[in-house]
Amino acid sequence: GSALLLTAFALFTLLLFVAMVGTVGSIVAAKSSLQAAADAGALAGASAMGNAKSMDIVRSQATLFAQDNLQPGDTVEPPVIVNNDSEGSVAVTASRQVEISLPQLIENPPTYKVTATAKAKVFNSGSISHAPPFVIQAPKNIRWDANDNYQHSQRYTMQINPQGPNSFTYADVLFNADVLFNSDTSWQEYYSLLANGYEEECTLKTPLYYLGPAQGGKESVRYFGSRVERDRNNDVRKAKYGDERLMIIPLVDTLPTAKKGQSVKIVGFIGFWLESMDYGQLSYDDYYMDRWGQIHGVGSARYRDFKANGYFVKVTLPAGSYEDYNNRFFGTSQVRLVNS
Hints:
The protein is an alpha+beta fold. It has helices spanning 2-48, 55-68, 184-196, 218-230, and strands at 75-83, 89-99, 111-124, 134-137, 152-159, 167-168, 171-174, 208-213, 246-252, 263-264, 268-278, 282-289, 295-303, 307-313, 333-339. Helix 3 (184-196) runs parallel beside helix 4.
């Protein structure tokens, strides 16, 4: 009889232990599944901050992506928290009720609520590579193309003398103030930067130095245009970081106009994808007439009317601005989970 009592107690303990092991396993599995859903929602919401016109859209995107990764019965707990500051963040919480497994011991076993929270935050990129040796003024009114889910802007043109709201100009800069461009070697280095970009990483703290205003020099424009000739992709919707046509251009508050060597402060970066180059007519600084009455150009040869047509591109979301670039994100940004 005493043995029977001990056996019954041991059996009860064993069943309880097995049940709890099963419950713990269910809780761990639920936590992992919910965490993946919360992570996906937070990252999607933070990525949407650059092109969403309202915080409701951000919340909707975060909820949608989280729900896509949830199992039936799981929920995204409201509210999805959005902080739209200079470093925007999105927090998502997902939950599931897990039944505490006590088979045949009680009729209505209790449940345990499992939750997982993820927060994603937007950071300006620490650095970019292949920056061209020129800067543009940070645009304040980019019009993103809704037909492409706001991944690129409407068509814009870079030229010496901007014409209209969808046109902008640039200023040439140096990454090394000691480069004087008094030799063929120095100029070849500069042409290489136009064709391939700066080999070192460029950050907001990288020193730049003013070289001169947009001039459209013959060799410079040709080397710049080689980006289009080398890249077979002619569809901006397929643009990706590393493409020959895609430049990550340093931004400044205002274009420098002072003497050569003036320090230039970078305030951000933006992607610009080259669609085409219109060179225009080649002109010269001066002319002379030969003994037979023929006109010849001398001095520097320039494409004064060249146009670089293309689109601003959101290389890594979020990027760009609608009305004001203060506390907004340009070019490459990083969206990272900050806790989970």
